[in-house]
Amino acid sequence: MLIAIGSLAALGAALGTVLGVAARYLAVEEDPLEVELAALLPGAQCGQCGYVGCGQAAAALARGEAPVTLCTPGGKSVAEALSKRLGVKADLSDHEESVPQYAFVQEELCIGCLRCTNECTTDAIVGAPKQIHTVIRDNCHGCAKCFKICPTEAIKMCQVPVTLGDWRWNKPGAAALQ
Amino acid sequence: MRLFPIRGGIHPKYRKELTSEQPIVALPMPARLYLPLQQHIGAPAEPVVSVGQKVRKGDLLARGQGAVSAPTHASTSGVVVEITTVTAPHPSGLPQLTIILEPDGKDEWTDLPDPIEDPFSLSGDAIRERVASSGIVGLGGATFPAAVKLNLGSQQKIETLLINGAECEPYLTCDDRLMREYAAEIVDGARIMAHALGAPGIVIAIERNKPQALEAMRAAAAGFDAIEVIDVPVQYPMGSERHLTQAITGRETPAKKLTAELGVVVHNVGTARAVHQSVRFGRPLTRRVVTVSGGAVAQGKNIEVPLGAMVSELIAFCGGLREEPRRIVNGGPMMGQPLPSLEVPVVKGTSGILALTVAEANERPTQPCIRCGGCVTICPCGLVPVEMAAFIRKDNLDAAAGIGVTDCFSCGSCSYICPSHIPLVQYFNYAKGELAARDRERRRLDRVKTLSETRVERLERQAQAKREAAAAAAAARKAASVPSENKASQ
Ligand code: SF4
Ligand code: SF4
């Protein structure tokens, strides 16, 4: 018994020291620009840009490998913030403002496999094994990860309808000179 | 009372003579009434009736939800035939959830709440409650729930209740007619509201171009020392809350603040009358007076309309259209909004329906800015429209916000005065909508961020718990196996 405890403790202490030293000497320099860019991104880790998550996307942006318009869910406002920070002129005029979407589980098709629940980055899907799942619409940010993984195609992506509250006027036409 | 000047402003062609001598007449009950769930600022009401249900006039159809909201009542007796989406009386033409009522022709009142004999012995809260349950909103067009505004007295000392009878928008005469015909009801409503607010003084402000209304209101207010009826200069936009307050106090309401900061709460004359009806008779808001006017209408009228009547019925009641209108406007010509069609219902905020001819709409091609500075001189908010529009045109909304575009209240004076016909106020409407949308978007993204961070934490916690459990299990196994080893070695 004592031998077991002693040996485990010694092992722990030794490995801990090694890890501590490694953390000190092998630390990866955090690029401050990267951190700043990551703060501008939505942080939803949805992967729609093609990178694993927002951190990787920020790194690619910092290296100048990705366009500022990469973030679909962030839309125009994020693209603008990024282009401002990076000092690049981005042509936002034809940056398609993607219509916001939300996921919807068609109950008759859901088999309760839990795959979508595990995939969702904002915990917007509630469900238990072999129970019908459902999406909390207010929490869904429309990344469609669940839509892609569902084995029975029970999830469909719907457009968030425009309401009177968020309707807005268009910019006066180009004919309006100044 | 001493009046103070307000900055800028314009003197458009008023054309009030088209309807000012038309007494208020009731609209014959239409075959169907369309009552949208959102006729006010705030959260939409929630239906409490089902299809097929029989209702009587004044029955609750949908109740208000949340702190800022207003209920909707049946405008007549009849049957609820459908609850579905109908085009909203809104420039977007978007559909809106609407309760459709088929009148039975009896127009029979429901059992109303008891009349309040002596409202002045009641607490402000009791009056506010009655006003809230009657679904009364600002009838000048802003449609802010009146009870919420009557609550301002509990947060700060209100010195004056200002009753707005300025009616500075051209064409509109519904408030003028109300004051001439129902002066006593307005005065009574105003006294009740002042009591609820705890305001010692009441000022009723009317523009000088309405001498009969001034006379009628003065006569009705005689004998009440707390009430002062004043005539204010004819100057658009005198009827704006902030500017009317400035005219009587000489002080400007700070940006993004309410006039209550200056001890003044403003209510429209129509709202005062609705409060009178609700408190004295228990009647909820089921009708309002609408001015139908404009050169394209056969005979302009002031009509008392059951809420939910289609605009096309009002036009038909006025003898139809004389010519194809260039524009149909909901409200006045300066701040009113274009209507998508005539098949939209009259709601609590509909003060006027104008069918304007080509000459009246006066749409002319835009020319380059000649830097005359006219827009700067007339802006009643002291803004610099020419510069804001230049920023917005180049999509630099932040710069436009920096010089106050969100303080613009879209009075349209700058567009009206501009010799180059630059659609200045249209730029500002666009910019304000866009800035508000960005704000909503930013809040949404923040929420998404919080949610995904919470998830990462949760996963981390779960992993940690698993590791701990595994370690504990391993330790337990070890502990169990050590003695047995010992036994074996013995
Ligand atoms: S519309 Fe706005 S900018 Fe133009 S005059 Fe009115 S308040 Fe000023
Ligand atoms: S009124 Fe019109 S033309 Fe004159 S400065 Fe303003 S925008 Fe330019």
Automatic annotation (TrEMBL), chain A:
[4Fe-4S] cluster 1 binds at residues 46, 49, 54, 71. InterPro entries: 4Fe-4S_dom, 4Fe4S_Fe-S-bd, 4Fe4S_Fe_S_CS, Elect_transpt_cplx_RnfB/RsxB, RnfB/RsxB_Proteobac, RnfB_subfamily. It is found in: Cell inner membrane. Residues 1-23 are annotated as: Hydrophobic. GO terms for molecular function: 4 iron, 4 sulfur cluster binding; electron transfer activity; metal ion binding. Its EC number is 7.-.-.-. It comes from the Bacteria. GO terms for biological process: electron transport chain. The keyword RNA-binding does not apply. [4Fe-4S] cluster 3 binds at residues 120, 140, 143, 146. GO terms for cellular component: plasma membrane. This is Ion-translocating oxidoreductase complex subunit B. It is an enzyme of class 7 (translocase). [4Fe-4S] cluster 2 binds at residues 110, 113, 116, 150. Residues 101-130, 131-160 form the 4Fe-4S ferredoxin-type domain. Pfam families: Fer4_21 (PF14697), FeS (PF04060). The complex is composed of six subunits: RnfA, RnfB, RnfC, RnfD, RnfE and RnfG. Its main location: membrane. Part of a membrane-bound complex that couples electron transfer with translocation of ions across the membrane. Keywords: 4Fe-4S, Cell inner membrane, Cell membrane, Electron transport, Iron, Iron-sulfur, Membrane, Metal-binding, Repeat, Translocase, Transport. The keyword Membrane applies. Signal peptide: none annotated. Residues 29-88 form the 4Fe-4S domain.
Automatic annotation (TrEMBL), chain B:
Belongs to the 4Fe4S bacterial-type ferredoxin family. RnfC subfamily. Residues 471-490 are annotated as: Disordered. GO terms for molecular function: 4 iron, 4 sulfur cluster binding; electron transfer activity; metal ion binding. NCBIfam families: PRK05035.1, rnfC. PROSITE patterns: 4FE4S_FER_1, 4FE4S_FER_2. Keywords: 4Fe-4S, Cell inner membrane, Cell membrane, Electron transport, Iron, Iron-sulfur, Membrane, Metal-binding, Repeat, Translocase, Transport. Residues 359-389, 399-428 form the 4Fe-4S ferredoxin-type domain. It comes from Telmatospirillum siberiense. [4Fe-4S] cluster 2 binds at residues 379, 408, 411, 414. SUPFAM superfamilies: alpha-helical ferredoxin (SSF46548), Nqo1 FMN-binding domain-like (SSF142019). Its cofactor is [4Fe-4S] cluster. Part of a membrane-bound complex that couples electron transfer with translocation of ions across the membrane. This is Ion-translocating oxidoreductase complex subunit C. Residues 471-480 have a biased composition (Low complexity). GO terms for biological process: electron transport chain. It is found in: Cell inner membrane.
